[in-house]
Amino acid sequence: MTCYAAAEGGHLDILKYAREHYCPWHSETCAAAAANEHLDTLKWAHEHGCSWNEYTCRYAASGGHLDVLKYAREHGCPWNEYTCSNAALNGNLGVLKYAHEHGCPWNTNTCLQAAQHGHLELLKWVHENGCPWNELTCSVAARNGHLDVLKYAHENECPWDDRVSWTAARHGHVKILKYADDNGCPRHANILSIAAKEGHLGILKYAHENGSPLNGDVYLNAAKEGHLEIVQWAHENGLPWFEQVCSAAALGGHLELIQWVHHHGCPWDESTCAKAPENGHLEIVKYAHEHGCPWGVDTCAAAALGHHLDVLKYAREHDCPWDHQTCRNATSKGHWSLLRWAHENDCPCLCSAFGEEGDH
């Protein structure tokens, strides 16, 4: 690591001293020098027998260090497809041209990196010079909102599939989704559910207005992530309520959302009070209980599993039932303080729980 650190920082005097005192080095030393454009350090290391490999060229290309790459290649350093793809990743067209003109191999990953990072001119050049591409070129352009890149790729017969619409929906790129729709790209069946999960109301509105039917996953994903505006929109657009909407919000700890949906007629059942304790959401348990939500033994069991003694105490103080699963959950997770409290307050089946999990 001493030689690596010296090469990384370009400290040739330290590297020389380290080698004079038999400090070991390896190919990572040359790679570190190349990555940080320390050509003098790389030259000295190579001239004094330090090994190198494809990573030297790869890191030089990634940083756009053409002089370093030229030296390495002129002195026999190997390279591979990652030299081109790393040059494309950072938009280093000059490096990429040199590599290609000197026989460096490339593959679809070069186009992918160019598209993913919005390097349109570089993508044009590699495509015009025969670099292959595939469906991932379009999907990564869509993911990062590079509409100009997507247009070029599609107009030049790059294949695409429903991952374009899915990634556009996930990342909230309405213009990308619209372009894909307008140009015949297949639409993914789950774009509404992923948009709801990520909180992209604009995607939901556009997709629903253009043929994607609402479904229960819109409620579930939005409720779990706390996207109240999306839940409200779905309700206004006629999506029927069901009990799991409340339990999903309870699991995520979204009290305001539960209050709103309950006020607007969403039903709930014991699963709401069973899900809230899993992550210690005491205020949700309180609200649900005070407003008539049923609970059962799963409420206490969930509190024990998550080691939420405050939730368990509240539940028991308000006559929530419990059974052997409370002690069993506490025992299996090693929650000794909660287990002791449960035992002292006459939780059933404590001895059975100990017997199954091991005597103390």
Automatic annotation (TrEMBL):
- Signal peptide boundaries: none
Q: What is the lineage of its organism?
A: Eukaryota, Sar, Stramenopiles, Ochrophyta, Bacillariophyta
Q: What is this protein called?
A: Ankyrin repeat protein
Pfam families named in the record:
Ank_4
| Domain of life (superkingdom) | Eukaryota
